[in-house]
Write a structure and sequence with these properties.
mainly beta; Leucine-rich repeat, LRR (right-handed beta-alpha superhelix); 6-stranded parallel β-sheet; 2 helices; 10% helix
Length: 141
């Protein structure tokens, strides 16, 4: 039997995620939107080698989040209470960070040559021109 490549636990009463994503090496899509997640995002999810789409929007995530996912194409973290984010994902195309508690500079996405969508409205972010100028010239915000 082939391992699942998609997991969707959205719109449930999920409050935490197990740290067992490393045992799912073929997982490419993970969605847990519209839940009441608390605590940190599991390290095995934050550094997945196969994940291409991550949707944790409309949950109750807070604090700092660092993602290092080499195959990631799309991340949706809108409508949370995250205060800072770091994204290392050279293939990223779509980033949704609206309605969080981010302050300070935008995440450095200068390595993301395929970035087409970056939504970070309703935060207190500011642009760091040196690391974002080329990226912002390529996309429509």
């Amino acid at each position: 039997m082939r391992e699942a490549d998609t997991s969707d636990v959205s719109n449930n009463a999920v409050t935490s995620l197990p740290d067992s994503f490393a045992s799912l090496p073929h997982l490419t899509h993970f969605k847990a939107a519209n839940n009441s997640l608390t605590g940190p995002v599991p390290s095995s999810l934050r550094s997945s080698l196969s994940l291409t789409n991550l949707n944790l929007a409309n949950t109750s995530l807070s604090g700092d989040l660092s993602l290092s996912i080499p195959e990631l194409l799309s991340v949706s973290l809108s409508n949370n209470q995250l205060s800072s984010i770091s994204i290392v994902a050279p293939k990223i195309q779509r980033v949704y960070l609206a309605n969080n508690a981010f302050t300070g500079p935008l995440p450095d996405l200068s390595q993301a040559r395929g970035l087409t969508t970056f939504i970070a409205s309703n935060n207190s972010l500011w642009v760091t021109p040196r690391c974002m100028r080329d990226t912002l010239d390529r996309i429509e915000c």
